[in-house]
Amino acid sequence: MSDHDTDGPAVHEEPADGPRETSDRHLPVLLDRCVELLAPALSVPGAVYVDCTLGMGGHTEAILERLPEVRVIGIDRDPQALELAGARLERFGSRFTGVHAVYDEIGDVVAEQGLTGVQGILMDLGVSSLQIDERERGFSYAQDAPLDMRMDSTASLTAADVLNTYSERDLARILREYGEERFASKIARSIVAKREARPWERSADLVDLVRACIPAATRKGTGNPAKRTFQALRIEVNGELEVLERALPAAVEALAVGGRIVVESYHSLEDRLTKRELGRGAVSSAPHDLPVEPETHKPYLSLLTRGAEEADEAELERNPRSASVRLRAAERLRPTPTHMLTRTER
């Protein structure tokens, strides 16, 4: 999924002549850099690329256009995104396959396509332009909408459910851990007090409550004060961090030797998990006191970026939603040693 902005999406108006085309609504973040990193691995005959977060298909479209021999599997949990991306990519015929799944299911998706490994993987995390721009999805705090925030509209849990049923303690924990909100306890206490009079239904009411809970001096110059609360709720509703924690090792295991993975994160919690998972594969697992490094303890990944890359000025001007992106990438050198596999991968 692309086009994220943890500092707050702007309100988007449809043009006078009707809804925008999918490509007009979608500016893929760091598109050229993603293709540049993935292209060497996708140059082999029969190469397959997995877009774990298809969104509206911007990154996938570029791969299909620039690398005409590559086949793409696009995964998304959002049925609407799959429908729109499928229409956008229809001209590529059998080279594109869309799959309704959550991206931690990448191992199963690859196996169901009859493959033992793929050559390229992209994870463009967070909330997509489609979800931000569709008012009724409730992701944007810039416009009033039902408190929904489901990436998969067929799922049951909504943001309103969280606000109306979670305990004050759990709400405070979510706001603190997922939103890194300094005033988590005060906001949680206010949420519970207000729902005693009337259930939570609309996003504008939540924005007003959060604004009232955060001192004016603290709010100054920090953007919309509700951004951290909305981020926390979205992460909870969609289980984003739990999914990512499972998806990262599963994606590495889906890579063939020589394959490459690119991950675009949009807040520190995502980037921390990505850094940890790619980093553990890029160092020796041998005890420090061994005189010779056993083959089975050598790194199985090579990092392709020095730390996390950010958007430059040209990218920021072209696509303001790239402001918070952190990109990391790695290449598989060899199979993962058995002792480095997680329990679910063995």
TrEMBL record:
Location of the region described as Disordered in the Swiss-Prot/TrEMBL record: 1-25, 308-346
Top-level taxon of origin: Bacteria
Gene Ontology annotations of biological process type: rRNA base methylation
GO CC terms in record: cytoplasm
Documented EC number(s): 2.1.1.199
Subcellular location: Cytoplasm
Main localization of the protein described in the UniProt heading: cytoplasm
Any one GO molecular-function label of the UniProt entry: rRNA (cytosine-N4-)-methyltransferase activity
Binding-site list for S-adenosyl-L-methionine: G57, G58, H59, D76, Y103, D124, Q131
Reactions this protein catalyses: cytidine(1402) in 16S rRNA + S-adenosyl-L-methionine = N(4)-methylcytidine(1402) in 16S rRNA + S-adenosyl-L-homocysteine + H(+)
Record key words, sorted: Cytoplasm, Methyltransferase, rRNA processing, S-adenosyl-L-methionine, Transferase
Protein family (similarity comment): Belongs to the methyltransferase superfamily. RsmH family.
Annotated function: Specifically methylates the N4 position of cytidine in position 1402 (C1402) of 16S rRNA.
Protein name from the UniProt record: Ribosomal RNA small subunit methyltransferase H
